[in-house]
Design goal:
Elements (H helix, E strand, L loop, with lengths): L1 H7 L1 H12 L6 E2 L1 H4 L13 E3 L3 E3 L8 E6 L2 E5 L6 E4 L4 E6 L7 E4 L2 E6 L13 E6 L4 E8 L5 E10 L2 E7 L5 E7 L2 E7 L3 E5 L2
Parallel strand pairs: 10-14
Antiparallel strand pairs: 1-2, 2-3, 3-8, 4-7, 5-6, 5-8, 9-10, 11-12, 12-13, 13-16, 14-15
């Protein structure tokens, strides 16, 4: 399950690795690295950020009990369907039972996450046939780039949100592109054509 997840996340992981390498930043890093103003993160050693957008809290006991911290914002599981957390401005702690196949792997709000639906190996075209996941996007414009398998920027995804309306545009991506909008724990899907689409959610 997690091998397949890693393979599907390669467009995200490779882009994060390429961009972070320019500044010597680690891909797997402590929580305080991305939440410098949140003092609660400074002593946390049992969870980490995988790149700037994904939180991982491993299971460390046979009972499957995970006690983990969620910084302010909205967080959606990319492993467990329907799992969604909303944390207040000062963050919150959660204690929940998991197992080795259902641990917390959470995307933070305002994340554009590119994933391949059915990869066979890690070395594939990271711009082809992608699912474009949008997690609780903020108002206004958000844009990310994506690298090719040589680590060079080769395309981008731009999302403009105006209340419940989304304008999504891509450049440098090809094949079938599926838009998957995650909004307060609910999911909306739309197939993209001609590298541009407008979506309105209820």
């Amino acid at each position: 399950k997690y091998v397949n997840l890693k393979l599907s996340l390669m467009p995200y992981l490779y882009t994060q690795a390429a961009h972070n390498a320019k500044y010597g930043n680690p891909l797997m890093r402590p929580m305080w690295f991305d939440f410098t103003s949140d003092y609660n993160t400074r002593t946390i050693s049992n969870q980490y950020m995988l790149g700037s957008q994904i939180l991982v809290a491993p299971v460390f006991n046979s009972e499957g009990i995970v006690h983990f911290y969620i910084p302010a914002g909205k967080w959606t599981s990319i492993v467990n369907e329907g799992e969604f957390f909303e944390s207040p401005i000062n963050g919150k702690w959660v204690t929940k039972k998991y197992d080795e196949l259902t641990l917390p792997v959470l995307a933070r709000d305002n994340t554009i996450l590119l994933m391949h639906n059915n990869p066979k190996h890690a070395d594939y075209d990271y711009t082809l046939n992608l699912n474009i996941h949008l997690f609780d996007m903020h108002e206004g414009k958000t844009k990310i780039s994506v690298v090719n398998n040589r680590g060079k920027d080769t395309g981008w995804v731009e999302v403009i949100r105006n209340q419940n309306k989304f304008q999504i545009e891509t450049k440098g991506l090809s094949g079938k592109q599926q838009i998957i909008i995650h909004e307060n724990g609910h999911v909306f899907e739309k197939t993209m054509t001609n590298n541009k689409v407008n979506v309105e959610v209820e």
